[in-house]
Amino acid sequence: MTYFKKILRYALPYKMYGILNIFFNILYSLFSALSMLALLPMLKVLFNKDEDKFYPNPIYNGISSAKEYFQDSLNCYVVESIKQEGHIQILTYMIILIISLFMLKNFFNYLAMFFMTYLRNGVLKDLRNDVYQKTIELPLSYFSEKRKGDIIARIGTDVLEIQYSFLSVLEMLVREPLTILFTLIAMIFLSIDLTIFVFIFIPISGFLISLVGKKLKRQSENVQKEQGTFLSILDETLSGLRVIKGFNAEAFFQNKFEDSTNRFYKFLVNLINRKNLASPMSEFLGICVIAVLLWYGGNLVFVKKVLEPETFIIYIGLAYNILTPAKAISKASYSVKKGNAAAERVLELLEMESPLKDKPTAEEKNSFDQAITLENISFKYENDYVLKNFTLAIPKGKTVALVGQSGSGKSTIANLLTRFYDVNEGAIKIDGIDIKNIKKHSLRNLMGLVTQDSILFNDTIANNIKLGKQEATYEEVLEASKVANAFEFIKEQPEGFDTNIGDGGGKLSGGQKQRLSIARAVLKDPPIMILDEATSALDTESEKLVQIALENMTKNRTSVVIAHRLSTIQNADVIVVMQKGKIVEQGTHQELIDNKGTYYKLVEMQSFD
Ligand SMILES: Nc1ncnc2c1ncn2[C@@H]1O[C@H](COP(=O)(O)OP(=O)(O)OP(=O)(O)O)[C@@H](O)[C@H]1O
Ligand SMILES: [Mg+2]
User: Fold this and answer.
1) Which residue among 379, 410, 451, 560 is best mutated to probe the pocket of ligand 1, counting the most ligand atoms within 8 A of its Cβ?
2) Residue 578's Cα: distance from chain center in Å?
3) Could you please report the per-residue DSSP string of 468-530?
4) 67-71 long-range Cβ contacts below 8 angstroms, 24+ apart
5) Is the pLDDT of residue 426 over 90?
6) pLDDT over 70, % of the chain
7) Region of residue 121 (phi > 0: left; psi between -120 and 50: alpha; otherwise: beta)
8) Which residue from 119, 118, 162 is spatially nearest to 347, judged by alpha carbons?
9) Where is pLDDT greater, at 9 or 200?
10) Is the pLDDT score of 217 beyond 80?
């Protein structure tokens, strides 16, 4: 129930629609009962045998005898009218009345649904937007644990399930109980004895039906989770198609996918079969109630003669009328259970607190004046420390290069500087201020980032470059692409800057992708550049192009360059040589060569290549 309440908060902005829905639902349920009752005079006309019997004009004696008064008035009216205008004429009137009542009932029903549609889909939209916002906000560490497909399932099908099951309950919350209430009033009005029977049977059937719904939430959870799994497989397949085909691994992935869809099939069949049990069961229970009514009511008509046959027919009609909303309510209880599973998954994501959230005291920092210092930091992703007691100063205007074997923690330093992760011990400071006390947005405004794997989006070249500065003019984009040495290939594209580069930049070569990501950082023009050079081997020509781009961009800036090709960083002010998360050497290129240490060996190895 708490999930339901939390989701309900999303309906608040749409409460006007909710109110209109309630209003028309009240009218609907009222007319629902009225339209049944209106059949009564019609039947009286049809069954009126004793035309000569005289009905005196009734006298109203207060609420206690309202029923007698109503019945007498009706009898009197029907008999008198028939005498004056004839059967057919009265029949026509009655039919017009019935048609009008049914028309109004359905019209109000439509209006109620009309307004509810805005509310339901508004909630769907807002929930999706919030989940998306949360997805962008959550730290990277969250996504190395969760599968991508799981997130896609939550934002796609889970939210839809909430819209479908929870909010349909919202609709029933007013309409069905009211319909039952009004119908019951009409039933009591017609016969109290019979109604007591109904009262006894409804709770019994309700209990029986609720037995079926017990396991529903668990089953729903399974279905939802499995959906996440196979979306994940699909996602990995699509991004890894080249490898899957190249390694003839189609059958392996096909099996993996079929395992998942098989489980999904089993879960879903179970769920749906259980759910489908609800409707026939409640219908059958309902008809049992009717059967008892028929027997008991028949007695009242034939034996005790306290009930008129036409009244009895209408009564049965009303009793059957109650079944539909009663069925709907029992169905709603399933819906809530199914919705709960989905809501739990969506809310889990929405309520996830980001550990990297800005502190309330965090300050804006709009300039970089002195230095970045890493003061005795230690960091681990999971269990093992990747960096241990690491200390480094990056003065303004200098280029610091990080080199070292694969896995030594170079990219990790970039992750920490941009605060994708927080250090476990020690502190990273900019101009003496701990970056934990700087608003993330303003911190990242100071930095330009070129990641190791060039991350590009399925959009035009211009839009990919403009990512960090949407308002950039064409001239600025052109300038940045020249600095990044990218203009050469951009101008050869069929539509220049407006060429779409495909999913993840798939239509470009490795070197071209890299230069585009450099252009993107250059256009942002931040005081601090963080460059994680791609490991992918480039041919000598594109390596030269990328190298020139790097040199252009680090000019007159403070930069941290993570390099794999040592030729790129010979001019760096400081070269830091790392090994297993520690600094083993640092100095200029010449100093380190003279030292004949680790760096010297690395350079020697690369010259052999
Ligand atoms: N998201 C992560 N979760 C857990 N461990 C990680 C994660 N990213 C990196 N690591 C581990 O941290 C260590 C350092 O990785 P890092 O990416 O910093 O290496 P690197 O120096 O950049 O290597 P390369 O030259 O190959 O790019 C590695 O042992 C790696 O297994
Ligand atoms: Mg790396």
Assistant:
1) 410
2) 43
3) G-TT--HHHHHHHHHHTT-HHHHTTSTTGGG-B--GGGTTS-HHHHHHHHHHHHHHH--SEEE
4) 67/189, 70/189
5) yes
6) 94
7) alpha
8) 162
9) 9
10) no
The Cα angle at residue 85 between residues 84 and 88, in degrees rounded to 5: 145
Read off the pTM: 0.78
The rounded mean pLDDT for the chain is 85
Average pLDDT estimate for 359-387: 91
Assign 3-state DSSP to the chain and report helix, strand, coil percentages, each to 5.
Answer: 70, 10, 20
Q: Which residues line ligand 1 (CB under 6 A)?
A: 144, 381-382, 386, 406-412, 452, 535
Rounded distance, CA 397 to CA 192, Å? 92
What share of the chain in percent tops pLDDT 90? 30
CATH 1.20.1560.10 corresponds to the domain 2-350: yes
Residues 6+ apart with CB under 8 A from 383: none
Distances (CA, A) of 165 to 120, 123, 162, 336, 389: 10, 13, 5, 6, 54
Q: State in Å: Cα 438 to ligand 2 middle.
A: 26
| CA nearest ligand 1 atom 5, residue | 381
Output 433 or 55, whichever has higher pLDDT: 433
Measured CA to CA, the distance from residue 278 to residue 171 in angstroms comes to: 19
Give residues with Cβ within 8 angstroms of 433, minimum separation 6. Answer: 363, 365
Residue type, 346: V
412 pLDDT more than 70: yes
- Give the distance (Å) from ligand 1 centre to CA of residue 585: 20
Q: How far is the CA of 139 from the centre of ligand 2 (A)?
A: 19
Instruction: Identify the residue whose tokens are 């997130």.
Output: 151
- Which CATH superfamily includes the segment(s) 371-608? P-loop containing nucleotide triphosphate hydrolases (3.40.50.300)
Confidence tier at 439 by pLDDT (50, 70, 90):
very high
Q: What integer is the mean pLDDT of 592-605?
A: 87
Give me the mean pLDDT over the 498-523 stretch. 88
Contact between residue 598 and residue 577 where contact means Cβ atoms under 8 Å apart: yes
d(CA 546, CA 234): 34
DSSP state letters, 49-89: --TT---PPP----GGGHHHHHHHHHHHHHHHHHHHH-HHH
**pLDDT > 90? residue 375:** yes
Q: Which residue reads 């769920």 in tokens?
A: 271
Question: What mean pLDDT comes out for the span 101-115?
Answer: 93
Q: Where are the domains of the chain?
A: 2-350, 371-608
The Å distance, Cα 231 to ligand 1 centre, comes to 27
Q: The tokens 């099996």 sit on which residue?
A: 255
Is-contact 181 33, C-beta < 8 A? Answer: no
d(CA 7, CA 543): 54
Residue bearing the CA closest to ligand 1, atom 10? 381
